[in-house]
Write a structure and sequence with these properties.
The chain is mainly alpha-helical. It has 7 helices and 2 strands, in the order αααββαααα. The chain has a two-stranded antiparallel sheet with strand order 1-2. The protein is elongated, with a radius of gyration of 19 Å. The N and C termini lie far apart (about 45 Å). The structure holds manganese (II) ion (MN). The site of manganese (II) ion (MN) has 5 residues, from α5.
């Protein structure tokens, strides 16, 4: 299993490659707001663990294993954003909250959250019912 920070890199590298077709050390550094030398170090580590192949002057490519894991990590991030949005978390908090929790849940928990998201997405009335609970709670908090 990749460590939390390896996961952040793999997630971002996978996304960059999806968006632009490649991921340069400088792009990764800008994206994760870290120094390029930290990126090089991590990329070498990921190479050793066979998530990608890194050649100094040719850039990097994900191995099939790296692609598989990267895709899963991006899916997990997006799922957790959907989840927080559905339960009514404010838009401005969503990204930071997901960054805070994504590495700390088991895949079992992720899959169960996936079921819950599906449950709500399948019927809009379920989301409305949840909003109704939230409105009532807000009113009772105001009256405390
Ligand atoms: Mn993320």
């Amino acid at each position: 299993m990749p460590t939390p920070s390896m996961e952040d890199y793999l997630e971002r590298i996978y996304q960059l490659i999806e968006e632009k077709g490649y991921a340069r050390v400088s792009d990764i550094a800008d994206n994760l707001e870290v120094h390029p030398s930290s990126v090089t170090k991590m990329v070498q580590k990921l190479d050793k663990k066979e998530y990608l192949i890194y050649e100094k002057y040719r850039g990097l490519v994900l191995t099939p294993k790296g692609k598989k894991v990267g895709k899963r990590l991006v899916y997990r991030h997006e799922l957790l954003e959907d989840f927080l949005r559905i339960i009514g978390v404010e838009g401005e908090n969503i990204y930071t909250d997901v960054e805070g929790i994504e590495h700390h849940l088991s895949w079992d928990a992720i899959d169960r959250i996936g079921d819950l998201v599906q449950y709500f997405q399948e019927q809009q009335t379920r989301i409305e019912a949840l909003r109704e609970v939230q409105r009532k709670n807000e009113i009772s908090e105001e009256n405390e």
